[in-house]
Amino acid sequence: MKASNLFLVAFFLSSVLIAQQRIKFKEISSPVTWWVISHPFFALKAMKASSNSRSLTKSDSIMAIFGNDGNGGGLDAFRHAFWMASLSEKIGNRRTIRLGIAHEKGNRKDFEKKRLEDGSLPDKVSIEMDLHNNAVGVSLTQKKEGVTQKELISRVYNAYLSGELVVVKKDKQKRSVNVYGEIILPKQWQGKWENTRVLVPSNCN
């Protein structure tokens, strides 16, 4: 097939997948859209991996392990690490990490446009957390390794217990605290890109 024809096929497939993604998730960011256009033959696998990781995050069995804090807590860390690990096993680590970076670039755009993610505006700390946990997730598998979902969850859990993942530092009431353990009121950090929230290893909170 000529290169020009191959490009047209790839562009068509990308357009279809983007449309499907918008139907399922309402809309996707322009950085992720460009990733889809650049990787049309892997986009469906990425969409399925994303959907599966979000479904797992809502399950009682996963919340029993990682808690129910999906915004800067253990559950949030699990979602990103598991998503990246499961996708890396299917399409390789370089493509996967690029998607993770594109996703976080989209979150920065969400902040600029005041669009909520998981009920709150992203900030610098939350994106740093996601990028770190994405990288750890990618390192947990190899392409076409054939790892089961149960084993993959176990690997993420071991990374969580050993402190390889990171979470936002919070008190027992899930309130963000600074490096000194002082409570940061929501008005002091919500909607502010730079704030005094900090990250800690996942086995510290």
Describe what this molecule looks like in 3D.
The chain is mainly α and 205 residues long. The chain has one domain. 61% of the residues lie in helices and 3% in strands. It has nine helices and two strands; from the N terminus they run ααααααααβαβ. It has helices at residues 3-25, 30-38, 43-57, 60-66, 74-91, 93-112, 124-139, 149-161, 186-189; strands spanning 166-168, 199-201. It has a two-stranded antiparallel sheet with strand order 1-2. The protein starts with a helix and ends with a strand. Residues 1-26 have low confidence and may be disordered.
Question: In a few lines, what is going on in this structure?
Answer:
With 205 residues, the protein is an all-alpha fold.
